[in-house]
Amino acid sequence: MQLTVWTYEGPPHMGAIRVATAMEGVHCVLHAPVGDTYADLLFTMIERRAGRPAVTYSSFQARDMGGDSGGLFKRTVAEAYERFRPQVILVAPTCTGELLQDDPGGLARAVGLPIPVIPLSLPSYQRKENWGAAETFYALVRGLAGRGQPGPRPPRPEGQAPSCNILGPVSLGFRHRDDLVEVRRLLDLLGVTVNVVAPLGASPADLTRLGAADFNVVLYPEVADTAARWLERTFSQPSVRVMPIGVGATRDFVAEVARVAGIDPVPALDESTLRLPWYSRSVDSTYLTGKRVFLFGDASHVIAAARVAQDEMGFNVVGMGTYSREFGREFRQAAEQYGVEPLITDDYLEVEARLADLRPDLVLGTQMERHVAKRLGLPCAVISAPVHVQDFPARFAPQMGLEGANVLFDTWVHPLMMGLEEHLLTMFREDFEFHAEAAPSHLGSAAPRSLEPADAVVSIQADPAATLVAAPAAGDASPSSSTSPSTPGVTWEPEAEAELRKIPFFVRGKARRNTERFAADRGLARITVETLYDAKAHFGS
Amino acid sequence: MTESMAEATEGAVKTCDGVLRERGQQSVFCGLTGVVWLHRKIQDAFFLIVGSRTCAHLMQSAAGVMIFAEPRFGTAVLEERDLAGMADAHQEIDRMVGRLLERRPDIRMLFLVGSCPSEVIKIDLDRAAHRLNARHGATTRVVAYSGSGLDTAFTQGEDTCLAALVPHLPAAPADEGRSLLVVGCLPDVVEDQFARLFRDMGVGPVRFLPARGARDLPAVGPNTLVLAAQPFVGDTVRLLERKGATRLAAPFPFGAEGTTLWLKAAADAFGVDPQRFEAVTGPGQARARQALGRVRESLDGKRVFFFPDSQLEIPLARFLSRELGMIPVEVGTPYLNRQLVEPDLALLPEGALISEGQDVDRQMDRCLAAKPDLTVCGLGLANPLEAQGLTTKWSIELVFSPVHGYDQAGDLAGLFARPLARRALLKV
Ligand code: SF4
């Protein structure tokens, strides 16, 4: 047993619902107890879907269990077919259904529906949401895409445009909707036609045509990797695995597509709308240099973002981690490039501990890191699922492609102090307007706030939509109070305390902690002005 | 049509009492969700759910829970090795509880909350609680109850929790006269209002279940009069009756009328003089009427449809129809606890369909056909119904906001009026 308060990923059947809901004509029937229907609200509230997700639950109760829970499941399948008329039905048990050993696949087949019924094997006690999505997508592809010809693909007929499939976008994905628009634009500029996008928007009939494309673009490996590997083997379709997040990766993506398709990359290299490189070079961005950044999220987004952080923003990657254990090997390799120890965990408390320890200048994480960073008074921007209602902005906000790079620049710089502002604060730190609780001026008139009291353990908001998936709704981008409780056993001389107050507030917390640690390490009971500056020299800041 | 399809038509039964009983997909949370408000109410309690990743995911998704430093609930997620018998569940629970209590010496009451998986693999949490009490009982009382979706829907999780506390309640002193026990979680502010009203009427001693602290379990005995503050505490009340307590029947305290009748049930049982009752409740009644008067116009004559959610539906439909002039079309409840809601049922107007259980697809059909002015439903259905042109109110807000009593009557009405006002306001 594992004590869990909050998880980055739901159970594997969540992944199955996300795939089914993304598609057209696919319906998922789950053998599940009454309360498992909660999953619906993630789709209707976070994604603001106008329709219900493509799932029906058998809703069994205690009284069914001694009796005919199998019969109940058959009725559920039959009714779901009658009502929704899907072209394919996916069936699976949820965690409790799995324990009943009713064999949903066999039961569903026995109903004798005139459409394909694809049973999913989703081991709820071993696997999680992304794995479930990948497995579901793979089961659909393998079940519907048919059989390829053995041997290498015949050359593309003269004059025919190269074509690809885009694999990976699903429901409740982080910016999938907008990324897709950006990637289609790039492919279009290259003259590559898109054969099928799946799962998002694809019908079962579309999946039968997957083999016709020349190659696959694996947009989100967490969802599409298993299926793409099968397509590689079955149809000899090469895969483009570069995730076009950031300028360099977008250029690499274009080059890789051009190479695989045997075409000229130049048409897609028009960068007239790309602003990140100039913004990053402009003098105001000098202050971004060497900002210490910590990244956490799904493996592929973190790996991609680390490159942007270091090469395109001039940050210093001081730590990175992921909850995607399936991609542990790739992740470790990436972390090695930056010389940091990878943190592979699905325990947010471990991530929190690492954050508290590293005290980075910027956190790039999930909604959970945003929340933790807020408590620690660290600036944060969100780069990865799990998603929150705020991750479905009304405006166009991709992460991928040229516009995606522009969005990254804005989103990551936003929580930080602007360049000149940082200097002004240093100059006028005793000015009443620049009191310790002042937030970056562009973040509005954030009222001075102190840290949440340690005993405020959980806050329930009466407005669930604002807080779906464990994150606060508003006014949380500002660095919190910089004062922190002193280390026990170490006291500050009044003069040192006064000196500390002259340090700009946004680094004051760090200075205080560093000095206290410095003093504690040396067994100093009192901190003098000397100690403060000794510690500053020691930590080099 | 296959044989199974033929069976499929058996889902709904209209019984002789006029209640439509349905059996199909239920879009209602399971009882685990009760932890969300119970742990806020009982401030030194920890809730340890023994369940699956699904249970943990429900807890973080359902109620919009934000996690601060040290939350007072968590899920012990069962893993493959627990199922394969490689790890002894009871040893695992002991280990986890031991560590937890070491870290949280402030915890005075620990609930072991059963889930569907723990129930199906037959982890006997009562036995675990018994054993753990022997070890930790001096400082922390350990109590087990079930919040599983196999036996509880949403608010029933509070009932199973409170029912599990009943055997732990101390006996009221033998020489004590009548006492009043109010059953069901109320926000502290509402509880204090009621306590003041009872005090001013001379009704007392008054105790509340659950109490705010684990050490303040209310005493109960043959002279205890039980007044349910929530319609979903049926099992708890039954167990209290078995301990000799007497149940008072009343409509639930929503709105001016509901609150007055509810208070009156207690006042009459304590022999409060009608004039004194009037004097004490008069100002509250007047304030509530005034507040309702401001909202009435926007709700009067509007048709309302309730999807089943919290069991508050019948008392709320009574409030909306009698005090605000709304017309209930269908009033769905996950479970019809006749004994407790009879006084509210009796006040409902003719013509409202009462439905129990759910077949969500059919109910959606009925709702869309009825085209109510306002639909009260869960978060999974609200946007889809809005997209079909209906105006909706999230039912979960009714559970998480202070809505009982005179001084919340206007707020309660406002919750129903706001979606309509917004719809009228928007020009997009
Ligand atoms: S319905 Fe059962 S399995 Fe699902 S969340 Fe509730 S207790 Fe857990």
From TrEMBL, chain A:
Keywords: 4Fe-4S, ATP-binding, Bacteriochlorophyll biosynthesis, Chlorophyll biosynthesis, Iron, Iron-sulfur, Metal-binding, Nucleotide-binding, Oxidoreductase, Photosynthesis
Stretches of the chain forming a coiled coil according to its record: none
Source organism (scientific name): Pararhodospirillum oryzae
Name of the gene encoding the protein in the UniProt record: bchB
Every Nitrogenase/oxidoreductase component domain range: 12-416
Reaction catalyzed: chlorophyllide a + oxidized 2[4Fe-4S]-[ferredoxin] + 2 ADP + 2 phosphate = protochlorophyllide a + reduced 2[4Fe-4S]-[ferredoxin] + 2 ATP + 2 H2O
Taxonomic lineage of the native organism: Bacteria, Pseudomonadati, Pseudomonadota, Alphaproteobacteria, Rhodospirillales
Family to which this protein belongs: Belongs to the ChlB/BchB/BchZ family.
Enzyme category, top tier: oxidoreductase
Pathway info: Porphyrin-containing compound metabolism; bacteriochlorophyll biosynthesis (light-independent)
One GO molecular-function entry: ATP binding
HAMAP family: ChlB_BchB
Function: Component of the dark-operative protochlorophyllide reductase (DPOR) that uses Mg-ATP and reduced ferredoxin to reduce ring D of protochlorophyllide (Pchlide) to form chlorophyllide a (Chlide). This reaction is light-independent. The NB-protein (BchN-BchB) is the catalytic component of the complex.
Name of protein: Light-independent protochlorophyllide reductase subunit B
NCBIfam families: DPOR_BchB
GO biological process: light-independent bacteriochlorophyll biosynthetic process; photosynthesis, dark reaction
